[in-house]
Design brief:
Arc Repressor Mutant, subunit A, 215 residues, 2 domains
């Protein structure tokens, strides 16, 4: 299926020509991302997204039935990017101490990036919506699942115990990185990563393989 033929814009801007459906959808997502990041979800309008994309509103609605559907598509992709980053960090080395540092570096790198998709994950203004909240929570749960697999294999712990420790590590990285950025901390990124990685390693390093944790 292709979009409707090129027609003049009512505002004088020429409408985009024909594109394959997948290409048109990608273009609309790119334009919508810019609008949402600039204005936030509530202030953004489908009218402006259509106008910036050079398409009619009916074409936009052919691809996305509503503004929330469009936003969720962007959030889903952004969350996938962050989760894949965690998996890449874990796979970057077999040394567990370096794995801890790599994951802490990832959180600090992401929050400091001037990167629109990642900003949707960390700065969404629609966290009260259950579908958006589910997607954002997926960053924590799936990141923790990936980390828990390493803990379980290398520390010989149960699934439940491994997951609990993994959630703690993810939360430490996310919350600390956000605080570091939001407070305009004078601590350098390098020093912040080093301190958090040291703290995390001294904790998780206390769970050697096949030795049950003490309580």
């Amino acid at each position: 299926m292709t979009d409707a033929p090129t027609v003049p814009s009512q505002l004088g801007r020429p409408r985009s020509g024909r594109l394959p459906r997948s290409a048109r959808k990608a273009q609309l997502l790119e334009v919508a991302l810019t609008v949402f990041v600039e204005q936030g979800y509530h202030a953004a309008s489908m009218d402006e997204i259509a106008e910036r994309a050079g398409v009619s509103k009916p074409v936009l609605y052919q691809h996305f039935p509503g503004k929330l559907d469009l936003y969720l598509a962007l959030i889903n992709t952004a969350c996938d990017t962050v989760i894949e980053g965690v998996r890449t960090a874990l796979a970057s080395t077999q040394d567990n101490r370096r794995r801890v540092r790599a994951t802490m570096e990832l959180w600090f790198d992401y929050v400091a990036r001037d990167d629109a998709p990642v900003r949707l994950v960390f700065e969404s203004d629609l966290t009260s919506d259950p579908e958006v909240r589910d997607q954002l929570d997926r960053v924590t749960t799936e990141s923790a699942t990936a980390i828990a697999e390493v803990i379980r294999e290398d520390a010989g712990m149960s699934d439940e115990a491994s997951h609990l420790l993994a959630v703690a590590l993810v939360s430490m990285g996310q919350v600390s990185a956000r605080h570091w950025l939001d407070s305009a901390s004078t601590v350098s990124r390098e020093d912040a990563v080093r301190m958090l990685a040291t703290l995390a390693w001294r904790g998780i390093g206390g769970f050697p393989k096949d030795e049950p944790p003490t309580v």
